[in-house]
Amino acid sequence: MSITVAILGLALLILIHEAGHFFVALAVGMSPRKFYIGFPPALVKVRRRGIEYGIGSIPLGGYVKIPGMHRPAASDLEVHLAAAKSEAPELEEPLERVQALLTQGRFDHARSALDELRKAVAEARLSEPAAKGADRALGDVGDALSGDAYWRQATWRKVAVIAAGPLTNLVFAVALLAVVLMLGVPVDTTRTVESVLDDSPAQAAGLRPGDEIVALGGEAVEPDRISATIRASNGQPLRVTVLRDGRRTTLAAARPRRTDGDYRLGFALEPRVESYGPVGATELAVRQTWQVTKSIGSTLGGLVTGENRKDVSSAVGIVQGSSQAVDAGFRVYLQVLALISLSLALLNLLPLLPLDGGHITFSLIEAVRGRALGRAVYERASIIGLALVLFLFAIGLSNDIGRL
């Protein structure tokens, strides 16, 4: 059950990321063609005002299709129309006309030529696979030639749409942390025993939940020094003095047991929980987010020199950590979900294609140059970026397998 909740949490983060792109695209006049909960193929779908809404058969995250992410090129038609051209040779002439206009950058004329090619495809006798490939090619190029295509937009619009995804994850992370702070977080421990482990030295000595520890080894001890005093015992027997039902009682001597490198008696103290109001919680959440952001940035920077390799995790580790957080409690899970959301935001802002940060970087470069970069530049940069992202994933997966 906890693994299912963890997977659904990760899917939610991806969904709100895509929702950020979707709603900002609508706001700035770029009409997305599709918005799915989950990934296609669709289980159910409906079209409203030119947008296809659907529920995908792969229930992980979401999917949004923004028209014309790149300037259309002649090669965009070649792959998916090859089968149709083979079955209907009469398509070759209108196809070459569209490709020539795309190569020349005469996009307005290409739209008219594309309509002629679309008509010729409709009249041709094609097999179902060839027809589907042709429809996909015509649809993609038609979107790229439309007036609301992404590549045609002003720089600020392109940056706003792409940045909306990671920024939505960032805002969500702050909001989750603020909710946790309003619910209350442990800031210290009291001297009251919350629980005692079975078969532990504490249980053998007679320690009970509800006891208040006032002394260890005959010396008074403050709540924040209880754990340190036990660790410093080096395994020597300690007499625990408690207040029980208002009476001071000294229990039998207990010998701390070495566990995970430290000496412990096997009990937990009740935490002191502090809650914050909405304003205070939000301010503290922003500060915590900034501290974690600097830490993640330092970790990514350390990868360049080979340091911090063990700190990288893949989706496997994320689900594993989230699952453990579910078991630890609702507040802990929300905190972990917030950190994952922040990590997704920062990863997507790396200036690498095909990540969001890469699209933002290239949009800014084109604004400075005053003209668009060629398709070949985008393709080469995407290959390099994808290789680096896969390298990070391989490191994370290797770490996760080692931990598992």
Description of the molecule:
With 404 residues, the protein is an alpha+beta fold. The protein is built from 13 helices and 10 strands. It folds into 3 domains: 67 residues, no CATH class; 134 residues, no CATH class; 87 residues, PDZ domain (Pdz3 Domain), CATH 2.30.42.10. Helix 6 packs across helix 9 and helix 9 crosses helix 11. The radius of gyration is 30 Å and the shape is elongated. It starts with a helix and ends with a helix.
Summarize the structure.
The chain has about 400 residues and is an alpha+beta fold. The protein is built from 13 helices and 10 strands. A hairpin with a 2-residue loop joins strand 4 and strand 5.
Q: How are the elements arranged and paired?
A:
Layout: H1 2-27, E1 34-48, E2 51-65, H2 75-87, H3 92-104, H4 107-123, H5 128-145, H6 155-183, E3 185-196, H7 201-205, E4 212-216, E5 219-220, H8 226-231, E6 240-244, E7 247-250, E8 257-259, E9 262-264, E10 267-274, H9 278-304, H10 315-328, H11 330-348, H12 356-369, H13 375-403
Antiparallel strand pairs: 1-2, 3-10, 4-5, 4-6, 6-7, 8-9
Helix pairs in contact: 1-6, 1-10, 1-11, 2-5, 3-4, 4-5, 6-9, 6-11, 6-12, 9-11, 10-11
